[in-house]
Request: fold
Amino acid sequence: EIVPEDWSSAPCLPRYVPFLRPKLKDDRLRAQRNVIFCLAKMPIDDDDDVHDRILMSIFKALTGNARDPPRRGGHWDQIGFQGSDPATDLRGVGMLSLLNGLYLVTRRRELATKLYALSRGERDWPFMPVSINLTQICLEALRSGSLINVANERNSVMEAFHLLHCALYAHMGEEWQTRQLSIRDFGHLKMDLHVQGTTRAGQLIKMDAAAQKRQQAGAAGSAHEMAEL
Reply:
């Protein structure tokens, strides 16, 4: 059963005053929202080549391996999975978490590379399980209405969903670095990320977009300086 709305995590006014709750602007976006909740219930299908290709693409993009790894085996711990079969860790958010991972490694490659390096460092964390946790927060943000305005602006619920996942992971990486956190701190950090995602998703996404622009401007400036040497 799909539960598309749950206002218990929303800010005070929309939680208690129904007519102040944001709404998706048309049936197409509402259908997209329902697809997202269906994807969260969809497990990996070993007989579906698309499922396998998504999983393999994430592994190769993060690790730099050129060849597809075996579907099962100890190598999956390189991207943080806890056992020999990634499907075990994906229970609860299903294929939706893999689509978030695929978006991250393809559309935000620089961020994914930075986060993966941090996750393999001295204060490491399991990369994909953390991504799965953030996907769960994104689902709650969608239910609580926090993503509605972004989805309406972007004319895409799925795009808004991916953007929030990236913004949450970027925020987590920044906190991890600046506050010198370790895996023991993840529980408290996750609670903070949950509050941020379910109450101010739009602001998080805007902050992440602004950080991207600053990085791109810095990279362009460095390239220009190098060209003048």
